[in-house]
Specification:
heterodimer; A: alpha+beta; four-stranded antiparallel β-sheet; elongated; B: alpha/beta; Rossmann fold; five-stranded parallel β-sheet; 9 helices; binds zinc ion
Chain lengths: ~160, ~300
């Protein structure tokens, strides 16, 4: 009975909002965190972790009623859940399907860890990183040239 | 080709650009008089947020030898930075006072600010631990003068490869040449940083990281020595132990090739003993002199007066 309930929760349709599918297993909580969805979010949120998937064995899924992603959120999401699929739902139908992709350049959302980097010193410039490697994810600061990777990077996502 | 207006790194300088600077520097060296009024009426601003006597004097000498004038400051205490002015504002202000500027700053990434906020050409006179492109260019010029080419040489960089701001600039410059082999000789605490190593891999430069120069000294064409500073070691015993193994004396150099040269960006403390100065391979004072010619060439190139 338990499994039937779970399945039903996952397939429950939302009228408008966003369904993020094919999230790497275990990352769904992180996805919600990045999107700023917490206990105070006023609408329906469904989260499923480690669901069987045809394409990737196991996956996570989140459904968020009444939520549209901003470009910054999509960018950040692509870094923690590359290749996830974002379905924009309107009137119970999938209006648009976007496969997330790690961009060539990441801006604004991440800070350089080098304390001597101009981006950390009240100069009128904001952080920009180029993507050196997607797997594992390694970024390079456009300003000071330092690399951002591993835990230093994941802590910021 | 878009003309170069900012020099903050050697990463994006092509071999052709480097060679054009060296050709011009060589012409200047041979006929200094011919260039004595090329920059008449032009002003070089020297913005030294961190003091550096040698680099500043070298730039000033270069501009004065070109017939230009200089203005500027040294150390942040004398500038309005102490009062909280941004680099961006300083550059915008100086745009009205000078035709070209050189800036030394402890912050890294200043080049991007110059690109965004300066309408006049700007050169790095040393940027944090990130870069010292003109030092690297004068080093390359000295190497080229000694061998006629940089292609195919075996070059060792020894000492503090982590904090030495010239090291990345020199490596990225060397990477533009064909078939160069680089040995990076340092204690493990002072190895090149990961972001520099990654760049070298991307450039496909052949490099080896070792901790003892005696293993390869007989193969080398160039040994570039930098100072190991006491402050870099939490444990002073480590420093004392390492200091002696990274010291060059005539006996270190007894097996070198005939054409071998020894370089050092100066000032040196005791990493090269004074007895080495008399050996034919010691080229560090020539290096310093070359700095003026190379910087004259850079100023001319950036101002578009050749
Ligand atoms: Zn940075």
């Amino acid at each position: 009975m338990e499994t039937v309930k779970e399945k039903k929760l996952i397939v429950t349709k939302i009228k408008e909002g966003t369904v993020i599918d094919r999230i790497p297993p275990g990352k769904a909580m992180k996805v919600l965190h990045v999107l700023g969805i917490n206990e105070n979010y006023p609408y329906t949120v469904a989260l499923a972790m480690r669901v069987k998937s045809k394409k990737m064995q196991l996956k996570d899924i989140v459904k968020i009623k009444g939520k549209m992603l901003t470009p910054e959120e999509s960018q950040k999401l692509s870094l923690i859940a590359p290749n996830a699929v974002v379905n924009i739902i309107n009137d119970y139908k999938v209006e648009k399907k976007i496969v997330l992709e790690i961009p060539e350049q990441v801006s604004e959302i991440i800070r350089c860890l080098n304390p001597n980097c101009v981006t950390n010193n009240r100069e009128p410039v904001s952080p920009i990183f180029s993507v050196v490697s997607k797997e594992p994810l390694i970024l390079r600061c456009k300003y000071c040239d330092r690399l951002l990777e591993g835990q230093n990077l994941s802590e910021q996502l | 080709m878009k003309s170069t207006k900012f020099i903050f790194t050697t990463l994006n300088l092509s071999k052709e650009f480097l060679e054009s600077i060296f050709t011009l520097a060589s012409k200047i060296e041979q006929n200094l008089e011919n260039y004595s009024d090329k920059c008449k009426g032009k002003i070089l601003a020297t913005l030294f947020f961190e003091p550096s006597t040698r680099t500043m004097l070298s730039f000033e000498s270069a501009m004065l030898r070109l017939g230009g004038s200089i203005l500027g400051f040294s150390s942040a205490k004398t500038s309005s930075l102490a009062k909280g002015e941004t680099i961006a504002d300083t550059l915008r202000m100086i745009n009205g006072y000078a035709d070209i500027a050189v800036i030394r700053h402890f912050l890294e990434g200043v080049g991007e600010i110059a690109k965004k906020y300066s309408s006049i050409p700007v050169i790095s006179g040393g940027t944090g631990t990130q870069a010292h492109p003109t030092q690297a260019m004068l080093d390359l010029y000295t190497i080229k003068n000694a061998f006629g080419t940089i292609d195919g040489l075996k070059v060792a960089l020894m000492g503090d490869l982590k904090y030495g701001r010239t090291i990345p600039s020199l490596l990225y410059g060397l990477a533009k040449y064909e078939n160069v082999t680089v040995y990076l000789v340092s204690p493990k605490e002072l190895k090149i940083r990961n972001h520099v190593r990654q760049r070298l891999k991307d450039f496909n430069l052949k490099f080896y990281e070792i901790d003892d120069v005696s293993q390869i000294i007989d193969e080398l064409d160039v040994l570039y020595v930098t100072r190991i500073q006491k402050e870099r070691f939490p444990d002073q015993l480590d420093y004392e132990r390492l200091k002696s193994s990274y010291k060059i004396s005539p006996s270190t150099l007894k097996d070198t090739k005939k054409s071998f040269i020894l370089l050092h960006p100066l000032p040196r403390v005791d990493e090269i003993t004074p007895e080495v100065d008399d050996l034919g391979c010691a080229k560090y004072f020539e290096q310093a002199k070359n700095g003026v010619y190379v910087r004259m060439a850079i100023i001319l190139k950036l101002l578009g007066v050749e």
